[in-house]
Amino acid sequence: MKNKIIPYNPDLKERARQLRKNSTLPEVLLWQHIKQRAYDVAFLRFSNDEVKKNMFSVLLVIEEKVGELLGKHP
What is residue 45's DSSP assignment? Predict the structure, then answer.
């Protein structure tokens, strides 16, 4: 299945900047984990509720998807 990517929209640049500057605690913690793993793919944001309730599962799903995208299997 081909990844669906939203085309670049310059009108959203400022909104994206605001979201990055005002991240919630779950987002900060999730992105710290992602950056530590140094994945070679781009990510979009995940729901706070899912991250707060089950960080471990969120990270597992990310790792599985990255493996699929990079052609690696667990």
Answer: -
Range of the domain at 34: 22-69
Q: State how many domains the chain has.
A: 1
44: left (phi over 0), alpha (psi -120 to 50) or beta: beta
Say if 74 falls within a structural domain: no
pLDDT at position 2, please? 57
pLDDT tens for 22-63 read: 888 888 888 888 777 777 776 666 778 888 888 888 888 888
State both tokens at 1.
Answer: 């299945």
| Other Cβ atoms within 10 Å of 51 Cβ, number | 22
Q: Tell me, yes or no, whether 55 lies in a domain.
A: yes
